[in-house]
Amino acid sequence: MRLECRCFNDRGLHAAAETLDALRAGHDNGLPATLISDPALTDVVGGMLTLPQVGFQTRFQLGAWLYRELPMVVQLNSLLRSPGFWTWLAFFLFPYVCQGAEKVGENARYIFNRDNFRKRYRHLAAGPYLVFSRHNMAPQTIRGLLAAPPHSPGDLYEQFASRQELITSAAVMEVVNQMYFAKDTGVLKRGAATNARRLAEVLMHYDVTYDFISIPTGRLLSMLPKEFHRFIATT
Amino acid sequence: MTIRRLNYTGCQRVRRVDVQITMDVDTTPPTFLCAHSLDHYHFPPDAVIVIEAQAHWTLMRFDCATVSSSACGGPFQLDDFDSPNGIVFRLKVIGTGAQEGLILGEAEGVRPAADDGMEDARSFLAVQPAELGDVVWRLSFVGTDPLLQVNEKMEDWRSFIRRRDVQALLMPEIYRQLLREAFRNPVDTDAKDAWQNAVLTMVPPAVGRRPATEDQEDIDGWVDDAVRFFAGRHRLLRGLSEWTRGEA
After folding, report:
1. Residues of A in contact with B92 (CB under 8 A)
2. What is the tens place of the pLDDT at every residue in B118-165?
3. CA distances from A143 to A71, A167, A181, B163, B237 (A)
4. Do B50 and A211 touch (CB under 8 A)?
């Protein structure tokens, strides 16, 4: 698909929410054809955006694509906090971020609300973009966090992205990646999600004492208690 | 009701009065300068000072200098923020070498001093416009300090919250929520800068002794008394009546 980059206006945001409701209720099987291109609902904010034909296997691929493509077609600084832009983008990416009308998730996944900090990171387009953007200097460290498919962020992402102290830390991302991501297979190790839930809790205790932006990865790994050793040992 | 924290690493609480943040909101983006008085804390001279500016989900971090250098640098640009309203600062002193990454000292919830000197720079309740749908206002307890969010769609929200009728309706409920939250999430009684202690010590002795139990009925009763006293002291009913008559 190839389309001019657009942004939902207030009417468009309303229509987007109604569309999700209709999909959930089974009234529609797919998006209305003109929802993302209707001039009454959207404003053009940039150049042509073309979806890759091969699609995205992981949220890492999606985040990398957004990070690479968006600055080439829009003035991103002015749109970074725009609910209309990110919501439009989620609907533009709908075939990838929603696996059928019966699997429409909560609104926060598609409708971006910059002030809803409890759920903002769950947005299926803004989420991977923001994580990738934050860690663009070392993107290999977020492969594990974004290893899930674009429509299903997964528990590992939820545990860390929901805690600003953790998601902004390069050391924490590296620890998560080293512990839970199997580089040879490109997927998460067995039991990773359950163990990661505990890891996030333990790290939040450390956050009181250590500065996660300046702490070295090795030091953080060496402080982890025994329950995490089986994952550390296999890195 | 009180919580005592164990401090194995010797992290020092830096008092807010030892950190001065001056913000310039007339520039685009807004900028700030930081000055500090850390000599009497005896931090290692090579320890690093960083300032974090935060308003809800937006966080910016600025590496300032080492403890040995008296100047903090700056001005620092706050270009990630939609608005300068509600930005709260945190100063961290971080160890280096064998102590790399260890927080040696911290001042939380530092607010910029107002240019006109009229506003209490250490007031713990910031006001910020926010996307609230059809909700007019709400009190948020997510950050270090509570935040009064006012619907950003209201054209002149600053004037709105200064209106006597609005204050008469808002203030008792805000005060009630603050007191309840202070009981729900208590902090170390030594944390003099913590808003929970500030709001509890605002309650005059005339209200009666603060409940020492966790009995919710006792707490609710005491909070009710405190709110009633607060409304009386600020003559909120009279203010509302006068405003209503004036409007009519």
Report:
1. 211
2. 344 346 687 888 888 889 999 988 777 888 888 888 877 877 887 888
3. 22, 13, 7, 52, 59
4. yes
Cis preceding-peptide flag for B204 (omega within 30 of 0):
no
Q: B interface mutation test: which of A134, A164, A211 has the most B CBs within 10 A?
A: A211
Structure tokens belonging to residue A95? 């075939």
Candidates A83, A113, A168; nearest CB to B59: A168
Is B48's CB within 8 Å of A214's CB? Answer: yes
The arithmetic mean of pLDDT across residues A59-78, rounded, is 92
CB contact under 8 A, A81 and B82: yes
- Position B116 scores a pLDDT of 37
- Taking an 8 Å cut-off on Cβ atoms, the answer to whether A113 and B131 are in contact is yes
H-only helix segments in B99-205? 157-162, 164-184, 195-201
Is the whole model's pTM more than 0.90, yes or no?
no
The amino acid at B49: I
ipTM > 0.85, yes or no:
no
